[in-house]
Design goal:
The protein has about 290 residues and is of the alpha/beta class. The protein has 2 domains: about 5-30 and about 220-280, no CATH class; about 35-200, P-loop containing nucleotide triphosphate hydrolases (Rossmann fold), CATH 3.40.50. The chain is built from 14 helices and 5 strands. The termini are far apart. The mean pLDDT is about 90. It comes from Antarctobacter heliothermus.
Length: about 290
């Protein structure tokens, strides 16, 4: 019986272990309530009328909790459905000041960049020229906290730039990152008034978490049902993952691969325990770390 699987996963049961393991290791999209709220908020920004003071959006929460996948999924779906690209994802570069920020934008817009030193004014002119031509509606800045590690005046200059492109180019910025992004934006009431926030918190041990596990199980091509959401198993996964969706996916994926290799074809409490998985918060002092000294 394959009632516990999506059709795409069920079709792989006879494909061989290597094919099934490759499928498990491939990143997959898992819809959930926070993701739906974020996508709805970005859809409103995308379809809003022209305005002199367009609002932005913050997607903030802990590391390894699916923020990037939420943003990228929305951008990909837009590309599939739209005749013109109106959403661009910018990978914010590590480094302080507008020069690094401009470089991030130019790379994200796939623009050629001169080697060596470039003046801020020239880089700013190039960015303005590109934005005027491409006319994006949303610029998604992933890992935006990377731009906040400089001097206070550097951060102020970046926020001033975001206000200007909103006013001049009618762009809604979407800032994706850790909680430091929320703190920096709300450092002043003027900046905080420009952004709505969708928090991406750790998962509580509740019905939504059980639904997440059920959804994840349907994509794992195992011949037998694991019933990941039953309390005895769900509680172990939640404790090891510490409520981080990226950790949940890693745990379940590794357990599914082990279940294939050992011929059990389902994930049990024993399968999870045998992984020897160390929660993220405990890895600094894990036995593996002590072996390095």
């Amino acid at each position: 019986m394959t009632d516990h699987l999506l059709d795409s996963a069920a079709s792989l049961l006879d494909a061989g272990d290597a094919c099934r393991i490759s499928h498990i290791r491939t990143a997959c999209w898992i819809s959930h309530p926070v993701a739906s709220r974020a996508h709805n908020a970005m859809s409103l920004l995308l379809d809003r009328p022209v305005t002199l003071r367009p609002r932005g959006l913050l997607l903030t929460g802990p590391y390894h909790n699916g923020k990037t996948m939420i943003a990228e999924r929305f951008a990909i779906e837009h590309l599939r459905q739209s005749e013109r690209q109106r959403i661009w994802v910018i990978q914010t570069r590590e480094g302080a000041g507008l020069s690094h920020f401009y470089a991030s934008i130019l790379a994200g817009l796939r623009a050629p960049q001169a080697s060596g030193w470039r003046s801020l004014s020239r880089a700013g002119e190039q960015v303005d020229h590109l934005l005027d031509g491409l006319k994006p509606r949303l610029l998604i800045f992933d890992e935006f906290h990377s731009a906040l590690r400089g001097r206070r005046q550097d951060v102020k200059a970046i926020f001033s730039f975001l206000r200007r492109i909103a006013r001049v180019h009618d762009i809604s910025p979407v800032l994706v990152g850790e909680v430091a992004v929320y703190d920096a934006v709300h450092d002043t009431e003027e900046m905080g008034s420009r952004f709505d926030t969708i928090p991406v918190p750790r998962w509580a041990y509740d019905e939504d978490f059980a639904t997440l596990l059920d959804s994840l199980e349907t994509s794992m091509p195992l011949a037998r049902a694991s019933d990941l959401s039953r309390p005895s198993l769900a509680e172990i996964i939640h404790e090891l993952s510490e409520g981080l969706i990226g950790e949940v996916v890693d745990i379940v994926s590794n357990a599914a691969i082990k279940a294939i290799r050992n011929g059990e074809e389902h994930i049990s409490e024993a399968t999870i325990t045998s992984l020897g998985y160390t929660p993220l918060s405990k890895r600094r002092n894990a036995p593996l770390r002590r072996e390095m000294t």
